[in-house]
Design brief:
Elements: E1 8-11, H1 14-24, E2 28-29, E3 38-43, E4 46-52, E5 64-68, H2 72-81, E6 93-94, E7 99-105, E8 111-117
Parallel strand pairs: 1-4, 5-8
Antiparallel strand pairs: 2-3, 3-4, 6-7, 7-8
């Protein structure tokens, strides 16, 4: 039986990635050992893992994660208030498939899409 999934996505600089996810997005670092080139973070029930790939170009990175939430409007407003840049093509909107979604890019070009089932 499958119980959890923890996506692994690339990062170019552990310090920059850590600061973005912790200080801007509200995640916390997890784990008892600080491995060089690897980062694990968590917020609520979401856990993300990062591996060092210094040569990745943010413009050529296809890393993507879809994160479900139960308060899409509140999360969107929180990100706007914190001046987190919303992807130009990812403003909050209801999609034809019945989700409310918005997207951001992290410092390495990983696309984070947040979504909620809508009525």
């Amino acid at each position: 039986m499958l119980t959890q999934v923890h996506p692994k996505i690339p990062m170019r600089n552990k310090k920059i990635t850590r600061e973005f996810y912790i200080n801007s997005l509200g995640f916390e670092e997890i784990g008892t050992v600080d491995f060089e080139g690897y980062l694990m973070i968590k917020r609520d029930q979401i856990e993300l893992h990062f591996f060092l790939l210094e040569t990745i170009s943010p413009l050529e990175n296809y890393g993507q994660i879809y994160i479900r939430t139960d308060d899409i409007e509140g999360l969107y407003e929180d990100f706007i208030r914190k001046q987190i840049e919303i992807h130009p093509n990812g403003k909050l909107q209801r999609k034809p498939w019945g989700q409310k979604e918005f997207s951001i890019l992290d410092p390495d070009g990983n696309l984070l899409t947040f979504g909620q089932f809508s009525d």
